[in-house]
Amino acid sequence: MQSIELKELILLDVGNTTVKVGKVERDKVKVIKRVMTEEVLKKPKELLNPLKDKVVAVASVVKEITELLKEEVESPFFLSKNSPNLPVEIEYEGELGADRVAAMVGGRELFKSFVVVSCGTATVVDVVVDGKFEGGLIFPGLGVMAESLKRATSSLPKVKVERETKVLGKSTFNCIKRGIVNATVGAVMEVKREFQELPVITTGGYGLILSHRIGGIYKEELTLKGLLTAFIRGQSPRERNYL
Fold first, then answer.
1. pTM for the whole thing?
2. pLDDT tens, 203-221?
3. Domain-embedded: residue 142
4. Mean pLDDT for the stretch of residues 188-195
5. What's the CATH code of the domain at 185?
6. What are the tens digits of pLDDT across the range 168-184?
7. Cβ distance 13 to 205 under 8 Å?
8. Which of 192, 209, 208 is nearest to 200 (CA)?
9. Considering just the CA atoms, what is the radius of gyration of the chain in Å?
10. Rounded to whole angstroms, how far apart are CA atoms 75 and 3?
11. Residue 102 lies in a domain
């Protein structure tokens, strides 16, 4: 891959729900566009055409979009657990989502040991101790929980969790919302009890809602920042000096 200035780099965080497009502006990662993943799959050219002749770094968990990028973009950088010079030591059986790798790399910019909670389509909890990945949890995200209750019952409404209720529900809608949030918080708190000394970082679409209950810090663009770090570390020493 040719050497570039960071301002020329396009960052893609391809999730199951949303594709985030980022750039580096004034030494900070900025999201310049968000597109629903479903829309990208329907009209891929709208995402792909502006990427032609660009240098692109990708963290993708959607295989269809990964394949499209391989076909349409020249030599993109794809983040994986096997990317070179990662600041996290990762041993994992089978495939590990690039979003999880990016979140852990982003977390290492802040701490050597930490718990990172990625709150999107799935809620993923990963633990890093002294720069080494210790393991994690994966369970349905808030939106998926709400959708599954709607699909599995004949009378329960579909709930959109936009903000947390602070009291027990006095309507079916609020009972579901409170139950979904409490179930997620309870799972994360079990990990916190085991690793009490570790700071917690939350990120993802539902991260701000949950961070108020979980504690720690919320970093909206943690995954994109981790992708940027991994991209830079993946270049040759000469290219890194240029960047």
1. 0.90
2. 998 999 899 889 899 999 9
3. yes
4. 95
5. 3.30.420.40
6. 888 888 888 889 999 99
7. no
8. 192
9. 19
10. 13
11. no
Q: 195: which 2 tokens?
A: 């690793």
**Cα–Cα–Cα angle for 12, 16, 19, rounded to 5 degrees:** 30
CB 164 within 8 A of CB 213: yes
Question: Is 99 part of the annotated catalytic residue set?
Answer: yes
The token pair that represents 17 in the structure block: 């729900």
Q: Are 79 and 98 in contact (CB under 8 A)?
A: yes
Active-site entry in 13, 27, 53, 99: 99
Q: How many domains does the chain have?
A: 2
Q: Residue 81's CB: how many other CB atoms inside 10 A? A: 18
Q: Are residues 201 and 136 in the same domain?
A: yes
Structural domain harbouring 193 = 111-218
Structure tokens at 177: 């919302």
132-140 and 122-129: which strand pairing? antiparallel
205 and 238 both lie in a single domain: no
What are the distances in angstroms from CA 160 to CA 61, 144, 157, 163? 24, 10, 10, 9
Domain contains 1: no
Asked whether residue 118 falls in the same domain as residue 213, the answer is: yes
Question: In this structure, what are the phi and psi dihedrals at residue 18, rounded to the nearest 5 degrees?
Answer: -135, 145
